[in-house]
């Protein structure tokens, strides 16, 4: 694989594929294929890009084709993470026509979503440098591993996979615990008692909270590894952002901990945020409102390209 999927202790990728295929097939299968396509007919179908972007999901597509029909043969002219341009033929699948058509929509649904995420991630990661871009847990339910895989393909890095692999002390935890210092103390005690070696991040929203975290860390042994600087990027009426609070927080922390900027992160603002000195920038927009990349799978590519040119999509 060009980029391996992130690991997860309970996520079964094959079951997700089976669920997607079952959702399409229902209790009768593809009645249109059964009515129109003889079972023995074989064809080649070609992947076409209808817009520019970053390709993602080819490895998953192969898994889906194999689940539908192991005899299908897939070839790629581009790999995950490669740029593709409008009108480009970047892969093909050959075999039983019925199997290809049955797999088509499920393959495209996953590839389009993953390529859309990878495309936005690539743009954000490039603009954010030298900071690293992260996604969040704002993923499509049931598709988290795939969404996070697409972020890796696009050149981003993964935040925590779920609630189990990192302690992340957020505003509600702090309110319930009675303050940041209390929350940190409770976490440190819990990790020590349970002999857990996992990262700890705490959310701060004001400079006073940053100072309290640093005061706690200077007074107690702590597992804290990262400080989130939440909504310290302030939008301005002219469309720009004010990052002065963020910069002050980064200066206060002075590399004692990793830092993560969150809130008001857009493709337009991320470059300026990246110049603040933060280690990471997290953005839910990478996955929660992604625009799918337009990709098709066509047997008659000549007609598909003709129609695409007519509609300005090829």
UniProtKB/TrEMBL annotation:
Q: Name one GO cellular component term.
A: cytoplasm
Q: Which residues are in the Quinolinate phosphoribosyl transferase C-terminal domain?
A: 117-298
Catalysed reaction(s) here are: nicotinate beta-D-ribonucleotide + CO2 + diphosphate = quinolinate + 5-phospho-alpha-D-ribose 1-diphosphate + 2 H(+)
Name all Quinolinate phosphoribosyl transferase N-terminal domain ranges.
Answer: 30-115
In the record, biological process GO terms are: alkaloid metabolic process; NAD+ biosynthetic process; nicotine biosynthetic process; quinolinate catabolic process; response to wounding
Database matches in Gene3D superfamilies? Aldolase class I (3.20.20.70), Quinolinate phosphoribosyl transferase, N-terminal domain (3.90.1170.20)
| Top enzyme class | transferase
Q: Which GO terms describe its molecular function?
A: nicotinate-nucleotide diphosphorylase (carboxylating) activity
Query: Which pathway does the protein contribute to?
Result: Alkaloid biosynthesis; nicotine biosynthesis; Cofactor biosynthesis; NAD(+) biosynthesis; nicotinate D-ribonucleotide from quinolinate: step 1/1
UniProt xrefs under Pfam families: QRPTase_C, QRPTase_N
Task: Please give the SUPFAM superfamilies that the UniProt record associates with this protein.
Answer: Nicotinate/Quinolinate PRTase C-terminal domain-like, Nicotinate/Quinolinate PRTase N-terminal domain-like
Alphabetically sorted, this entry's keywords are: Alkaloid metabolism, Glycosyltransferase, Pyridine nucleotide biosynthesis, Transferase
Membership in a protein family:
Belongs to the NadC/ModD family.
| NCBIfam families reported for this sequence | nadC
Q: What is this protein called?
A: nicotinate-nucleotide diphosphorylase (carboxylating)
Species of origin: Genlisea aurea
